[in-house]
């Protein structure tokens, strides 16, 4: 299957700082990328959908000013968690699709805000 | 009621057994059905992808979709300890768009 690389795999940051997470499609051009959040022993919840060159579409209840998404190229999307707080600690996972059918996931980023 | 229901388990079976994993759903508009495998602290890995109803086989894995019953299954034959992971079902109305995931079933294959 297609390869999606996510970086970093884990990050610890201080409360009030911002953290950027990168998601790259390595062997295909991702027309659309998705960002999910997963709490322990819970399922993945879609946060937002981004298309290259367009503003991201956020799911209900997700603060767009807190979770900034940039999809500047067909192979790279970034999620920036701004002014992070302990309740933002979670597992963030991106996925990408080339043709809009199968979605391939990155390895995930475990964010801990202290 | 959740859109997608999946028994979280845990499910523990001996090596070589046939494993059956299931999900039910309520949204009759779902057309795309997937199974992902997720190891601890890793991203989900796509195992099976099915459009509409029917069966699909890939090696030791078989996916079944019964849209009339709103029920999907994943069968694993000749299960191996390396199959131990959490299995997530996911589905959507439009391909990769707005995937709705089940809670995931934690599976352990005992040597």
List the helices and strands and how they pair.
The complex is a heterodimer of chains A (114) and B (111).
Chain A: E1 4-7, E2 10-13, E3 19-25, E4 32-38, E5 44-51, E6 57-58, E7 67-73, E8 76-81, E9 90-97, E10 104-105, E11 109-113
Parallel strand pairs in A: 2-11
Antiparallel strand pairs in A: 1-3, 3-8, 4-5, 4-9, 5-6, 7-8, 9-10, 9-11
Chain B: E1 4-5, E2 11-14, E3 19-25, E4 32-38, E5 45-51, E6 54-58, E7 61-66, E8 71-76, E9 85-92, E10 100-101, E11 105-110
Parallel strand pairs in B: 2-11
Antiparallel strand pairs in B: 1-3, 3-8, 4-5, 4-9, 6-7, 7-8, 9-10, 9-11
Shape estimate of chain A? globular
Round the Cα radius of gyration of chain B to an integer and report it.
13 Å
Query: What is the helix tally of chain A?
Result: 0
Helix content of chain B: under 10%
Residue windows where pLDDT falls under 50 for at least 5 positions of chain A: none
Task: Report strand % of chain B.
Answer: over 45%
Structural class of chain A: mainly beta
The structure class of chain B reads mainly beta
Report the largest inter-chain contact. A-B, 27 and 23 residues
Unreliable stretches covering 5 or more consecutive residues of chain B: none
How many DSSP E strands of chain A?
Answer: 11
Quaternary structure state of the chains depicted: heterodimer
Main pleated-sheet profile of chain B: 6 strands, mixed
User: What general form of chain B does the structure show?
Assistant: globular
Mean pLDDT of chain A: 93
The helix/strand order of chain B is EEEEEEEEEEE
Entry keywords:
heterodimer, A: 114 residues, mainly beta, seven-stranded mixed sheet, four-stranded antiparallel sheet, globular, B: 111 residues, six-stranded mixed sheet, five-stranded antiparallel sheet, 0% helix
Description:
The complex is a heterodimer of chains A (114) and B (111). With 114 residues, chain A is mostly beta strands. Chain A is built from no helices and eleven strands. In chain A, the strands form two sheets. In chain A, strands 2, 4, 5, 6, 9, 10 and 11 form a seven-stranded mixed beta sheet that branches. In chain A, strands 1-3-8-7 form a four-stranded antiparallel beta sheet, with no helix packed on it. The termini of chain A are far apart. Chain B has 111 residues and is mainly beta. Chain B has no helices and eleven strands. Chain B has strands at 4-5, 11-14, 19-25, 32-38, 45-51, 54-58, 61-66, 71-76, 85-92, 100-101, 105-110. In chain B, the strands form two sheets. In chain B, strands 2, 4, 5, 9, 10 and 11 form a six-stranded mixed beta sheet that branches. Chain B has a five-stranded antiparallel beta sheet with strand order 1-3-8-7-6, with no helix packed on it. The mean pLDDT of chain B is 94. The interface between A and B is medium-sized, with 27 and 23 residues.
């Amino acid at each position: 299957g297609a390869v999606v690389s996510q970086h970093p795999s884990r990050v610890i940051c201080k409360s009030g700082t911002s953290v950027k997470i990168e998601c790259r499609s390595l062997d295909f051009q991702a027309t659309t990328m998705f960002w999910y959040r997963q709490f322990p022993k819970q399922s993945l919840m879609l946060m937002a959908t981004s298309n290259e060159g367009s503003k991201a579409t956020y799911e209900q209840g997700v603060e767009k000013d807190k979770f900034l998404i940039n999809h500047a190229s067909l192979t790279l999307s970034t999620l920036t968690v701004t002014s992070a707080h302990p309740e933002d600690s979670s597992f963030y996972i991106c996925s990408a699709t080339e043709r809009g059918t199968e979605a391939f996931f990155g390895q995930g980023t475990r964010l801990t805000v202290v | 009621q959740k859109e997608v229901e999946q028994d979280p388990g845990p499910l523990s079976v001996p090596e070589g057994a046939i494993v059956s994993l299931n999900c039910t759903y309520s949204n009759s508009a779902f057309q795309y059905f997937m199974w992902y495998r997720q190891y601890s602290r890793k991203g989900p890995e796509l195992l099976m992808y099915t459009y509409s109803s029917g069966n699909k086989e890939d090696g030791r894995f078989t996916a079944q979709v019964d849209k009339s019953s709103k029920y999907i299954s994943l069968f694993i034959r000749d299960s191996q300890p390396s199959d131990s992971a959490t299995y997530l079902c996911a589905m959507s109305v439009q391909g990769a768009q707005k995937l709705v995931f089940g809670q995931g079933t934690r599976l352990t294959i005992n040597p």
